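Narrative of activities, Objective 1.

The group set out to show that a structural description can be obtained from nothing but a protein's sequence at a throughput compatible with the screening campaign. Below is one input-output pair from the validation batch, recorded exactly as produced.
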Amino acid sequence: ASAGIVDMAKPTQALDPAADENPNASVAVRTGDQQQLILRQKGEGDQPMTAEGDACFSDERLNIASWSIAASETSTAEGTGADATQHGASAPAAPEPAAEQHSASTDAADHESIGGPLEKELAISMQFAPAMASLIGEFDRPDPAAIKRAVRFQLFLGFGAEARGLLRAMPIEDADIPIWQSIARITDEEADPAPVFSGMEACNTAAALWAVLADPRVLGVGQVQKAAILRAFSALPTHLRWHFGPTLVDRFLAMEDFGTATVLRDAVTRSGESEAGPEVQMMQAAIDKASGSPGASVARLETVAAESGPSNADAMAALVLERAELGQEVSFDQVQAIEEYAKERAGSLEQEKFNRALTVAYAASGDFDKAFGNLANGPDAASTLWKLHANAGPDSALLNYAVLQDGVEPPRSARGSAGLVANRLLRLGLANQAERWLAVTNDPPALLSARISVARGEPEQALMLLGDLMTPAAIQVRLDAYKQLGDESAIAQMFADLGMDQERWNAIGRTEDWAKLAAEGPEVWKTAAGTLSAQPAIDPADGGELAKGKALIDESVTTRNAITALLGSVKSPAALSK
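Output recorded for this entry:
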């Protein structure tokens, strides 16, 4: 139960101690969490199973590299073909180049020549005739061995539709036909109505590779035998590595498994990139992006997009998305190209993909009205659109699309950029709108929250949000809050704690505590504050009105000189703001 087993089937036959083999199949196991469990009867061979209790397909049954036609087989095939022409019956089919001849190794280094039949053995053009020879046997019936050879050869070439067509035209009975049918559909990137690799992603055989190719969702659920996948992929012929490699790399990069994606890339390119198609270049661009080299990625995509061919549309879509993520502008010509590609793919499975690229292209080119207008056709672009809008959109677009009606919350897709939108709205003087955007962020920045509170006339809330934060920006917000409260004493104490003596005494001056300034302040403040302290009354009897007037003039001169010195020592408002 701790292993997740919810059901098991008992052996159905009694064991014969004298027998060499165990007649019972592996114990059928059904688990609740789809983990792979390898349970066997005592004495049973090493036959791994899926979580549903199905046996994993062996490497020998999936050794596609051995399905080519060896040079040694051509003479036999030609001879039997001539004999069949003369006698109207098929001769024995060419020997199968499968595991009956040699066991397939599981080490990638042992398969260095497996991908080589196209170059190192018999030329591919010379393999067609012997592969397709003698398909019709005696009594005009399909020869099972010859059909098997021909179907497997077509799968070796990557001709999925042709292999399935041959099986329909010349049906035979073979236990591997479901495997061939699934491989053919996987090769042609078609949905498989009868998948045979389900649950085999955890098998320690080549079946794991085909299970992942058949259904990318298995990478995110349960156990996956990456070592078996890499081993089987490395054993594929070069042209099939070029065909399947970009798809596999994209799927592992989507799972943020950069290590496995890199190993797959190395297996794809070990025969050289110069002969590889644009799909391999786009795969390299994806690896460059994931490895932190966006410049190299953009350069590769620009090269593929500039070339003619079926891949330039995909490259252009990827290029637009990547330039937008980097904050780079998308040119008018690129926008026009994406518009045409989106029109061409209207109603197809790729329609939403290109509409997403078109929405992002509009935004990256600065046309946010068209971008928001096209968003309904490619809703997956919403988060990228709001990111571009928050970072580089003009204020007019921000006012059009970010100012919310009463009772309306910000879109869920925009919440990753809500803080940026709130900050821009605050700078535009829309504190209430900024507060509504900030409320939907997962972790609202304390400083921005405090700034919004000050702008809304809530100084106590701002001070509470700031806490002990004392960055230069936080000090300014704290100062604004104290000013709203009219608490000059708190301002003076804050400056004292910061060691800003001049600002401290300026704040005390605003409290009009002249006695404190005269007693403890700096000299310029002492002199000025002393003139404002209580002066002894002048007795007119000592000198009459003239003496009183002279005393007032002397006091005025002293006060003026003190104030002039004080003003000369105080920073200007512009300097204080810095």
